[in-house]
Design a protein that fits this description.
The chain is of the alpha+beta class. The protein has six domains: 60 residues, Helix Hairpins (Orthogonal Bundle), CATH 1.10.287; 262 residues, DNA ligase/mRNA capping enzyme (D-amino Acid Aminotransferase, Chain A, domain 1, 2-Layer Sandwich); 120 residues, Beta Barrel (OB fold (Dihydrolipoamide Acetyltransferase, E2P)), CATH 2.40.50.140; 71 residues, 5' to 3' exonuclease, C-terminal subdomain (DNA polymerase, domain 1); 88 residues, DNA polymerase, domain 1 (Orthogonal Bundle); 68 residues, 3-Layer(aba) Sandwich (Rossmann fold), CATH 3.40.50.10190. 38% of the residues lie in helices and 21% in strands. The protein has 27 helices and 26 strands. Strands 14, 15, 16, 17, 18, 19 and 20 form a seven-stranded antiparallel β-sheet that branches. A hairpin with a 4-residue loop joins β14 and β15.
Length: 707
């Protein structure tokens, strides 16, 4: 939404207040009310507004400052050089614009930069000072100028050396330092000071074990590894830090020891005995740095620690001197963040969707925002109770979440950003599609958790019928290629179909006269319908749209009851005897609510008529072997994210064919989490529980081992 200057001024004021509040919680009190991704989104919005109206930038803006106030319980340490923050960019276009700005600032548009790329750890930043080669002090970032003295705590971290080693002349020569550097380094180690900076982190596997230990001791679990690291390092009793699985990784050598490039800084720190991440890379140009970013975005799920992007530094330190610092951020360095799983945006309106059971679901129409690499323009609000719980109003600024294969949803409202023009929203009393009465009634999900939902009462609601047919024709059901929502709506509007069975009676002559249909498209759709007439029992049961009965339930029913379509048609009493509630509940994962839903569906005369109509239309159920191999026998796998070689339906089917069990939720019994692109929160759950995470390539090796 484009704002005029006055609107931008008010928005900037509110954004600054909100960001400062959350930065204080994060940096001073080690608490979070919103995710890092959501806070980054607010800061990015503020940064863009200030770039559009630079005269509105003030010295107290969050874009011009770092960190928060140091805790009073610790002795304060004044940093010799400020600990700076970094400018964030979220796209290749923004990254190239950053490079162009540096060249313009230097008045050298043809300048050739090379770069050094490293991971941006999600931990607690520290400054370490070594005096005469021995660790003398350690301090937190604090407000960038003054930090907290946590020397006693950092001495408990095994990866931080208590004394630095002397690199050999051969090592110094290997990294390209001049001969004079050896004498400068010897002097610093014997009678001078060396300052380095880095990040304290906790690995995900260690974090999972730490939380299990805390839970057994009756203590509250940590929210995430970053909070656990910060909480550990800032304990007044060093014995607490000593008992925590803390690790340290350096990223900056402050002291001039003769190094000429940022790459040399990292190599020299490693020779001094300081741990640096071995995956860092020299990049000859920005394209190589972009490739580095994409590589680690793909591999992020397989790494045992958290990082939210990469840091790209102009490699030559000579350029650092010329470029300097703007505000509290260096010009010569930038953080290229990964797509956030959460971001902030504005609710432009709220509408309702009608499901195949007649249930009304409120959906927010959003100002488009990129979340998890995808542009999100709408998000579910679930039900009226959820709207009340969140306190949602039209016009609100909200946090929206998208994690891998999860439907976008609103997780939090930021009421402090309200202007007074926001409007409340109420569930409609009549169906917005057919005008039928809307009623509230209690419902129970398959886990017997009760809630209240709104339903359209009309038995002739075209929206309900359309959603039923969409489900019936979907990939996981009859998989009728070419029969999408728009075509279904067109067929309903023309009166050509009134039930799923009518699909199988369509002829090419029915379709040719319709708008957007030609001879070829009519021929293709009829051929696709004909091909789908023979179907496996599990997919057939799923296509029926029985409430609470998803793909897994349909598969369980198919494994226990083998019917043909003629059984459904001719032996009504016989199959009703099979689908009795007490028998159904003996099947794993089918509880009383789901069993009742299945019994009610097959006992309904209208549904029995649908089964007879499907049989009369030529639908046949084929016998199929559900398990083709035992390669994955007994193995439970949770697929998440976007896979290259499989759709969500295909990967679950493949796991079943090989004797495995696809799961939706990560638990202690899960063997693997199969992670694709944008895997989302299931990766965090796997880390907390110590469940192994595998890539698609590793999965393929598992099922097709190389001999």
């Amino acid at each position: 939404m484009i704002m005029d200057k006055q609107q931008a001024k008010q928005r900037i004021k509110k954004l600054k207040q909100e960001i400062n509040h959350h930065r204080y919680l994060y940096h001073v009190l080690d608490r979070q009310e919103i995710s890092d991704g959501a806070l980054d989104s607010l800061k990015h919005e503020l940064f863009k507004l200030e770039q559009r109206y630079p005269d509105l930038i003030t010295p107290d803006s969050p874009t011009q400052r770092v960190g928060g106030q140091p805790l009073k319980e610790f002795t304060k340490i004044r940093h010799r050089q400020r600990m700076l923050s970094l400018e964030d960019v979220f796209s290749v276009e923004e990254l190239r614009a950053w490079e162009a700005r540096q060249k313009r600032f230097l008045r050298q548009p043809g300048a050739k930069f090379d770069y050094y790329a490293e991971l941006k750890f999600d931990g607690l930043a520290l400054s370490l000072v070594y005096r005469k080669g021995v660790l003398a002090s350690g301090a937190t970032r604090g407000d960038g100028q003054t930090g907290e003295d946590i020397t006693a705590n950092i001495k408990t971290i095994e990866s931080i050396p208590l004394s630095l080693r002397q690199p050999t002349p051969a090592e110094l020569k290997k990294i390209g330092l001049p001969p004079s550097a050896e004498q400068r380094l010897k002097k610093a180690l014997k009678q001078g000071e060396i300052e380095v900076r880095g990040e304290v982190i906790i690995f995900n596997s260690d974090f999972a074990r730490l939380n299990k230990k805390n839970q057994k001791a009756g203590q509250a679990p940590f929210a995430n590894p970053r909070n656990a690291a910060a909480g550990s390092i800032r304990q007044l009793d060093p014995r607490v830090a000593a008992g925590r699985p803390l690790r340290f990784r350096v990223y900056n050598l402050v002291t001039d020891l003769g190094q000429k490039t940022h790459q040399q800084e990292h190599e020299l720190m490693a020779f001094l005995g300081l741990p640096s991440f071995m995956g860092n890379k020299y990049c000859a140009d920005l394209d190589q740095a972009i490739a580095f970013h994409h590589k680690w975005q793909r591999q992020r799920a397989k790494v045992d620690f958290n990082f939210d992007g990469i840091v790209i530094s102009i490699n030559n330190l000579r350029w650092h001197e010329h470029l300097g610092i703007v505000g509290k951020a260096p010009r010569y360095m930038v953080a290229f963040k990964f797509p956030a799983q959460e971001a902030t945006t504005e609710i432009l309106g709220i509408f309702v969707q009608i499901g195949r059971t007649g249930k009304l679901t409120p959906v927010a129409r959003l100002e488009p925002v990129i979340v998890g690499g995808a542009t999100i323009s709408k998000a579910t609000l679930h039900n009226e109770a959820e709207i009340r719980r969140l306190g949602v109003k039209i016009g609100d600024t909200v946090i929206v979440r998208r994690a891998g294969d999860v439907i976008p949803e609103i997780v939090q409202v930021l009421p402090k950003l309200r202007t007074g023009r926001e409007k409340s929203w109420l569930m409609p009393k009549v169906c917005p599609v057919c005008g039928g009465a809307v009623v509230r009634r209690a419902v129970a999900d398959k886990k017997q958790q009760k809630s209240v939902a709104h339903f359209c009462q009309s038995k002739n609601c075209v929206a309900v019928l359309q959603r039923k047919i969409q489900h019936f024709a979907s990939k996981s059901a009859f998989n009728i290629e070419g029969l999408g929502p728009k075509i279904i709506a067109q067929l309903l509007g023309e009166g050509l179909i009134k039930s799923p069975a009518d699909i199988f009676r369509l002829k090419e002559t029915d379709l040719r006269e319709l708008e957007r249909f030609a001879d070829k498209s009519a021929q293709n759709l009829v051929a696709a319908i004909k091909q789908s007439k023979t179907i496996g029992l599990a997919r057939f049961i799923y296509a029926l749209g029985i409430e609470h009965a998803g793909e897994e339930t349909a598969i369980a029913l198919a494994r226990n009851f083998q019917f043909s379509i003629s059984n459904f048609q001719l032996n009504t009493k016989k199959f009703l005897n099979f689908f009795k509630k007490d028998k159904l509940q003996k099947i794993q994962d089918i509880g009383p609510v789901m069993a009742k839903s299945i019994v009610d569906w097959f006992g309904d005369k209208k549904n029995q008529r649908l089964l007879r109509d499907l049989a009369a239309a030529g639908v046949k159920i084929k016998t199929e072997k559900s398990v083709k191999s035992d390669k994955l026998k007994g193995i439970k796998i949770v697929p998440t994210g976007e896979l290259k070689n499989f759709s969500r339906t295909e990967i679950r089917q493949k796991i079943r064919e090989l004797g495995g069990e696809p799961q939706n939720v990560v638990s202690g019994q899960t063997n693997y989490v199969l992670a694709g692109k944008n895997p989302g929160s299931k990766i965090d759950q796997a880390g907390r529980l110590g469940v192994k995470i595998i890539s698609e390539a590793e999965f393929l090796k598992l099922i097709y081992p190389v001999k």
